[in-house]
Write a structure and sequence with these properties.
Belongs to the NAD(P)-dependent epimerase/dehydratase family. By secondary structure, this protein is of the alpha/beta class. Helix content is 40%, strand content 18%. It has helices at residues 13-24, 41-50, 64-73, 88-93, 95-116, 149-167, 201-209, 237-253, 271-282, 306-312, 320-333, and strands at residues 4-8, 28-33, 55-58, 78-81, 120-126, 137-138, 172-178, 180-182, 216-219, 231-232, 234-236, 258-263, 269-270, 288-291, 302-303. Helix 5 runs parallel beside helix 6, helix 7 crosses helix 11 and helix 9 (271-282) packs across helix 11. The structure holds nicotinamide-adenine-dinucleotide.
């Protein structure tokens, strides 16, 4: 028997990669997604990679009836909760939309889990919960003080998960704080497919490389870092997906508990270093310009991944060049993302 794992937001970037990792580990992903930022094509691609197409229920996590019907129709061993809106800038312009979807959606999902007696959850949190600490290496026991509505929503959900676990025995919960997920499955069949101009660095670079965008804009060349550009912790999306499977196994095999874990490589890489690593992989230079810093950005941060290594025995495996090569394979094969299908 292959346990069914409900994957909310499973048609999205990280969720589709998690489906591949779940299938490889012997689980059956069942996807619930309203497709507001994704395409069902990603799951057809999962079939081409894994031989299994995850079943898709097109519904919103705020739809209590749809959730009850889903939990009534089959036993669900655990939930991986990826569904959410994720653009920091947009969250500042539309905070209520973000809190309704992300916080309200999580409340609705948790209530449905409670009704169904499903008490194992892996939640997509984010390094944005830390805010702007004075040290660059973020550790889970540091104070969280997020500085935008997106990050505050993630932090609210983390706190809500703590309240829930304290109020009722039996919950197994892991909040995974991602650093900067990049790259794609090495097949080039699934990858990041942002709508409009990408918010994140890697899809921006790959879209410049295929000629969809004229030049990379590097926000700030005067940060107090070695080359003046901002430093982040880039994690290959398959490492991230495997981290979820490790967390799932851990939760299912141990006594009820609540975990908060950073998922990152522990290495800081500057924007220019990532650009140069990518240029090395594709064998040519890309146009880029240094522009003003973006409001709300910080100079440098990366994960302390010690706790995830100690608790899960998980650490990142893929290096910068694998991450660039895989992102490039995906973009080259799908210059316009899933719209090319
Ligand atoms: N990509 C990143 O840089 C990053 C970093 C840290 C945390 N995260 C978190 O990881 C999760 C997945 O991110 P991603 O990059 O795969 O984003 P994504 O937009 O590709 O995937 C999110 C999926 O959730 C779906 N969705 C959104 N709201 C929904 C709702 N109300 N009901 C049902 N489905 C809904 C979308 O259609 C999409 O398929 C998000 O919660 C995000 O906040 C992402």
């Amino acid at each position: 028997m292959s346990p069914t794992i409900l994957v909310t937001g499973g048609a999205g970037y990280i969720g589709a990669h998690a489906c591949v990792a779940l299938i490889a580990a012997g689980y059956t992903p069942l996807v619930l997604d309203n497709l507001c930022n994704s395409s069902a094509e990603s799951l057809r691609r999962v079939r081409r990679i894994s031989g299994v197409e995850p079943r898709l229920i097109v519904a919103d996590i705020r739809d209590a009836q749809a959730l009850d019907a889903l939990f009534a129709a089959q036993p669900v061993a655990a939930v991986m909760h990826f569904a959410g809106l994720k653009a920091v800038g947009e969250s500042t312009a539309a905070p209520l939309r973000y809190h309704d979807n992300n916080v309200g959606g999580s409340v609705a999902l948790l209530q449905a889990m409670q009704r169904a007696g499903v008490r194992t959850l892996i939640f997509s949190s984010s390094a944005t919960v830390y805010g702007e600490p004075s040290v660059a290496q973020f550790r889970e026991d540091m104070r969280c003080d997020p500085v935008n509505p997106y990050g505050r929503g993630k932090w609210m959900i983390e706190q809500m998960l703590g309240d829930l676990a304290a109020s009722e025995p039996g919950w197994r919960i892991a909040a995974l704080r991602y650093f900067n997920p990049v790259g794609a499955h090495p097949s080039g069949l699934i990858g990041e497919d942002p709508r409009g101009v990408p918010d994140n660095l890697m899809p921006y670079i790959t879209q410049v490389a295929v000629g969809r965008l004229p030049a990379l804009r590097v926000f700030g060349g005067d940060w107090p870092t070695a080359d003046g550009s901002g430093v982040r912790d880039y994690i290959h999306v398959m490492d991230l997906a495997e981290g979820h499977v490790a967390a799932l196994r851990h939760l299912l095999e141990h006594a009820p508990q609540r975990l908060t874990l950073n998922l990152g490589s522990g290495r800081g890489t500057s924007v220019l270093q990532l650009l140069h690593a990518f240029e090395h992989v594709i064998g040519r230079a890309l146009p880029h310009e240094i522009v003003a810093r973006r409001p709300g950005d910080i100079a440098a941060y990366w994960a302390d991944p010690t706790r995830a290594a100690a608790v899960l025995g998980w650490r990142t495996q893929r290096d910068l060049s694998a991450l660039c090569a895989d992102a490039w394979r995906w973009q080259q094969a799908n210059p316009r993302g899933y719209a090319d299908a």
